[in-house]
Every structure is written in structure tokens, then in C-alpha cells.
Design a protein that fits this description.
This protein is α+β, with helices and mostly antiparallel strands. The protein has 12 helices and 21 strands. InterPro entries: ClpP/crotonase-like_dom_sf, PDZ, PDZ_sf, Peptidase_S41A, Tail-specific_protease. One of its GO terms (molecular function) is serine-type peptidase activity. Keywords: Hydrolase, Membrane, Protease, Serine protease, Transmembrane, Transmembrane helix.
Length: 462
């Protein structure tokens, strides 16, 4: 069984060891920029000397900072993986040649050269921190992996809050298309500012506070939507069915959003919708099952449609409350190391089960549906899932920033690697969108109704 993740708290601002060097460089840069505007009064040789001096100082500052980071990160004894719940030992051996391969002398010279031209000729001042953060993000983007990203300290804090299901914002669940980067609202919570302001599921977020966010990373847009309680945020969305942009101003408020909702359908069927696999989703899931059992349900529908995934530990814990004893998922990293998560079988759910999936059921949702399918423990209904068979781990950096990178592939209990393939339902049912044109009605949801039909047949022994 994967160990339960424990999230680190975000530390306070740390002292930058090369801040004094940076200030010296910036003052030299300002001096040089002033002189550059008076070209006729500057001796060319003196200018070249000053440029060389600037160059040397900047290289020293960056290399000191980088060396410090590498020693702390790769020289320290342990790094904790949120995805697997394990500590990994890193040593400075031949496999960890990060400094030599990325930040070699040639690369540092080029970074230094770019900075020099920016200081000399960029027509106005710039924010050095933003430039550095863009550089860090660019390094991660260089992996060519759309699921790996760099977080600033603020973005990391927002990410943790969202994973915990508690935050101050407008009350929406959003997902990002990995291909065109568009951000779509997948759920609007009842009573939330978004609901009261008229936002709907399916709306594409175009702008936040007049800033175009159509190509921004999901975490950054989510951070823009959040903010202090009672502050206002202007959101512009594109509504496809009306073929127009809609702009609303919302007032943020503190929200604790459940990732599990449940009800009784048809008098004897327990329906549980799981919108995301967060820190407390496994607890909410168990409570939902227990409460529905008390209402004497005879079967269960687990709805993970449009669920983008979430925490591996959470879905493993949930499957431990459903499946018999055995493997529920396993992962392999690039070194061939294998980690296996198992159910102990003590809390197996001895009821007829159906699982609803669609093309936006991804990652942890596919682990959930894939395990139930492999065990033939329930009937999978709906449309083929997204096909994300890889795991990301989050590593907190020394200064409070963080990096999320893909660290392993995962496999269903029978060894299926579903990345790029998805999970095919046992019974294919395309959602009747036309039936929901006047607003969602579960009684008109043909996928849910098919699940009820299948469960009725099992319950009544047909």
C-alpha cells in the first residue's frame, strides 16, 4: 500500500544568498544604461571594460546560487515523493549530471549574455524575479512534457489549498485541454459566487480581471480566480451554445468544496459522484458509502465522468473500500523500480457496482475504473476515458517554490498501460446532450439511466 502523503507547510521567505551580488550587478547595469544614452560621451574601451565587469559579476552570482541549490537538492539525504508516499535517496553519482548537462559553462555564458543585452538595451525597466521565474519555467517546459510544471511559492501554496478542497474563491472546478490549453469549467458549486453570478459548466474561461488567460497554465489561472475574502474578480467566459462571450464580476468568499456528493436513486440505488481525488476525498467517499448503506441501497453507481484525477494515495485508499484483496495499481519509474498498491480486502463492497466514465475521466479516475474493470467487480458504462497513464510527483524546492514532474508510468492490476489509449467501457453509451439543454437533470441523463437499468437487472437477478 502506498503511504499516506503528508504535505509540507509553505515556509516564510528565505534570504537569498546572492542578493548582495545581484544588487551590485543591477547598480552597475543602471549606470551603464545611463551612459549608453550618451553615446558620444562614452569611451568605447571603457564601455567594453564595464560590460566585461558586469558579465563576470553576473556569472559569479548565478553560479553561486546554482551550486548551492544543487548541493542542497542532490547532496541531501532524502526527497519525498507525494505521488508514491516514499522517500528517495539521491547521491552525486554519474546519473545525476544535471549541472554538467544543463547549466554548463556555455549555457551560463549565454544566460549572462542575454541578461547583459537586456540591461543595456531593453527600453524600460523589468522585474528580475519574473524573468527568473520564466527561466525556471522554461527549463521544465524543455522536458516537452505537458504535465510537468514549475510553481512559484505562491502558486504552490494555491495548489496545496486546492488539493485540500479548501480555499477562498468563486466556487468552480476547472480543467485544461492539454492540446489547445483552453480552460473549461467542469463544475459550478451550489451557492457559490460562480453559481450566483450565472457561470455554467462548459463555459470556457477567456479572461480574468481583463487579462487573457486562454493559454495560461491551469494552476496560474486558478490562482488568479482565488484571492482574499470579499475581494472582487472579473471573469469573462465563452459560452458555446450561445456563441458569445459573457463577463461577470464576482465576490470571492471562503469555501470548503466537497469532492464527493451522493444520493439515492430509484429508491434503492446509491449514486456517488466524485469530482476530483483530493486530500479528503477518500474520507468523504467512505462516509458516502456508509450513509447509503444505512438507507438500505442494493447497488452503487460511481460517477467519475469529467474527473481530471488527483492524488494517487486518495484513489488507492478508496479502492481499498471497494475491491477484494489484491493489487489495485502499480507504477514503474525509468530505473525499473516497481511500487505496488494493494487492497487488503477487509472492506470489500459486496454490492452490484457500475462506474460511469467519459472522455474527460483521466489519471486517478482511470485507476479507479481500470481496477474495477480488471477485477470484473462492476460494469463500466459511458464513453472511452481520456488515457493518462503517468504519475506526477511534486518536489518542494529550498526557497519554497516547487516542481511537478512526471516520474512514473502506472499499470492496472492486469498490467494494462492505458496512456494514450484510455479505458473502453463495457457498455458504450454516448451522453444525450440535447436532453440537458435546459439544465442538468439526472433523470434525463441517459448514462445514469443505463447504469440504473444494469443494476436493476443484477439486483432482481434477471
Amino acid at each position: 500500500m502506498f503511504k499516506k502523503s503528508e504535505k509540507d507547510s509553505v515556509e516564510n521567505d528565505t534570504v537569498n544568498s546572492d542578493s548582495e551580488e545581484k544588487n551590485t550587478v543591477e547598480s552597475e547595469s543602471e549606470k551603464l544604461q545611463e551612459n549608453a544614452s550618451e553615446e558620444n560621451d562614452v569611451d568605447v574601451r571603457e564601455k567594453k571594460k564595464l560590460l566585461k565587469k558586469l558579465k563576470n559579476k553576473f556569472v559569479t552570482g548565478v553560479l553561486c546560487g546554482v551550486t548551492f541549490t544543487l548541493i542542497i537538492t542532490f547532496g541531501s539525504a532524502y526527497i519525498y515523493s507525494y505521488a508514491t508516499g516514499r522517500y528517495f535517496v539521491f547521491k552525486a553519482n554519474n546519473k545525476m549530471r544535471v549541472g554538467n548537462e544543463i547549466l554548463d559553462n556555455k549555457s551560463m555564458d549565454k544566460i549572462n549574455e542575454l541578461r547583459t543585452y537586456m540591461d543595456l538595451y531593453y527600453y524600460k525597466g523589468y522585474d528580475a524575479d519574473k524573468v527568473k521565474n520564466s527561466m525556471y519555467s522554461g527549463i521544465v517546459a524543455g522536458l516537452g512534457d505537458k504535465y510537468s510544471t514549475y510553481y512559484t511559492k505562491e502558486e504552490y501554496k494555491a495548489f496545496k489549498q486546492e488539493s485540500a478542497g479548501e480555499y477562498c474563491g468563486i466556487g468552480t472546478q476547472v480543467t485544461q485541454d492539454p492540446n489547445d490549453k483552453s480552460i473549461r469549467i467542469t463544475k459550478v458549486y451550489d451557492g457559490s459566487p460562480a453559481s450566483q453570478g450565472g457561470l455554467k459548466e462548459g463555459d470556457i474561461i477567456k479572461k480574468v480581471n481583463e487579462k487573457d488567460v486562454s493559454k495560461q497554465e491551469l494552476a496560474k489561472v486558478a490562482q488568479d480566480l482565488r484571492g482574499k475574502e470579499n475581494t472582487k474578480v472579473k471573469v469573462e467566459v465563452f459560452r458555446k451554445e450561445e456563441n458569445k462571450n459573457i463577463s461577470v464580476e464576482l465576490t470571492r468568499k471562503k469555501l470548503e468544496l466537497p469532492s464527493v456528493t451522493y444520493k439515492v436513486l430509484n429508491g434503492n440505488i446509491g449514486y456517488i459522484a466524485i469530482t476530483e481525488f483530493q486530500d479528503k476525498t477518500d474520507e468523504q467517499f467512505k462516509d458516502a458509502i456508509d450513509n447509503l448503506k444505512k438507507q438500505n441501497v442494493k447497488g452503487f453507481i460511481f460517477d467519475v465522468r469529467s474527473n481530471p484525477g488527483g492524488m494517487l494515495n486518495s484513489v488507492v485508499s478508496m479502492l481499498n473500500n471497494v475491491l477484494p484483496k489484491g493489487v489495485v495499481v502499480y507504477t514503474k519509474d525509468k530505473y525499473g523500480n516497481k511500487e505496488v498498491a494493494r487492497s487488503d480486502g477487509k472492506n470489500r463492497l459486496d454490492y452490484p457496482i457500475t462506474v460511469l466514465i467519459n472522455g474527460e475521466s483521466a489519471s486517478a479516475s482511470e485507476i479507479f475504473a481500470g481496477a474495477i474493470k480488471d477485477y470484473k467487480y462492476g460494469t463500466i458504462i459511458g464513453e472511452k476515458s481520456f488515457g493518462k497513464g503517468i504519475v506526477q510527483s511534486i518536489f518542494k524546492l529550498e526557497d519554497g517554490d516547487a516542481i511537478k514532474i512526471t516520474t512514473a508510468r502506472y499499470y492496472t492490476p492486469n498490467g494494462h498501460y492505458i496512456h494514450g489509449k484510455g479505458i473502453k467501457p463495457d457498455i458504450g453509451v454516448k451522453l444525450d446532450i440535447e436532453a440537458q439543454k435546459d439544465g442538468y437533470d439526472i433523470n434525463k441523463d441517459n448514462q445514469v439511466q443505463k447504469a440504473i437499468e444494469v443494476l436493476d437487472e443484477k439486483i432482481n437477478g434477471k
